[in-house]
Amino acid sequence: MLILTIRTDKPEAEIGLYENDTQITYETWQAHRQLAETIHTKLRKLVEGQGRSIYEIQGIVLYKGPGSFTGLRIGASVANALAYSLSAPIVGTSGENWRLGGVMRLQNGEDDTVVQLEYGSPVHITKQKK
User: Fold this and answer.
1) Under a CB-based contact definition with an 8 Å cutoff, are residues 38 and 121 in contact?
2) Sequence-distant (≥ 6) Cβ neighbours of residue 61 within 8 angstroms
3) List of domains in the chain
4) 3-state helix, strand, coil in the chain (%, to 5)
5) For residue 130, what pLDDT is reported?
6) Inter-residue contact 79 to 6 (CB < 8 Å)
7) Helix (H) or strand (E) holding 60
């Protein structure tokens, strides 16, 4: 089972590929305010760098928080849309061992269908400053 992992809750974003429970590649980069601009390219390069196709992904693990409101939303949008378009199961996890916990959940046949985020505190949205 080819599994994609995504974490976007902080300025340094993380993506990885697992074959069953074995990590085959992993990348981190300083995405910060360019996360929405860079995540798709990074995902494509990560998968194709292993001689694979995005269409071979059979499961997705998403870090669901707590963390940055905007970063989590971007990661969740990408992960949920990709899972939907590939008809692949997706699970949301958190904590120190979020990747392996999520991989185990997928291997046990779990599927959250859509990952709901946990921000860690109430969201405070303010009007944009001009």
Assistant:
1) no
2) 3, 4, 5, 6, 90, 91, 92, 93, 98, 99, 102, 103, 105, 106
3) 2-107 (3.30.420.40)
4) 35, 25, 40
5) 74
6) yes
7) strand 59-63
Tokens of 9: 């809750």
pLDDT in tens, 62-105: 999 999 889 999 999 999 999 999 999 999 999 999 999 999 99
Q: Which of 32, 53, 54, 27 is nearest to 42 (CA)?
A: 27
Taking a C-beta distance cutoff of 8 angstroms, is the pair 8, 72 a contact?
yes
Which residue in the block uniquely carries the two structure tokens 């980069």? 29
pLDDT of amino acid 127: 78
Place of tokens 């001009």: 130
pLDDT tens digits, one per residue of 15-57: 999 999 999 999 999 998 999 999 999 999 999 999 999 999 9
Q: Are strands 22-30 and 12-19 parallel, antiparallel or unpaired?
A: antiparallel
